[in-house]
Amino acid sequence: DLFAFAALVIFIAVFFTNFSNNAVIAILLLSTTPILCVQMGINSLPLACLIILAANTAFVTPAAYAAMAITFGMKEWVGKEYYLYALATVLLLIVIEIVIGIPVANLFLG
User: Which residues of the chain, if any, have pLDDT below 70?
Assistant: First the structure.
């Protein structure tokens, strides 16, 4: 099923990009998912766009993004609640990408 496969790839991209460089995760997924898409008989362009978008949702850990490392270093401004807000933001973005992003990407690019 295209929807389930795209949702899984989006979740993988968002999860791993919070612990590694987003460009590395995007390149790894962009090089492997088209092969799977060809075998499944689906267009890989909408999924590629969603992977690029998902790989840029890195807010949870300092390793995710350089700005987050600076943010987490400011202990007098940023408290422990930042983890909660960042996690909620990332989960909301995953839901938005799955619910809105997959149908819109398939409509315009599929």
Answer: none
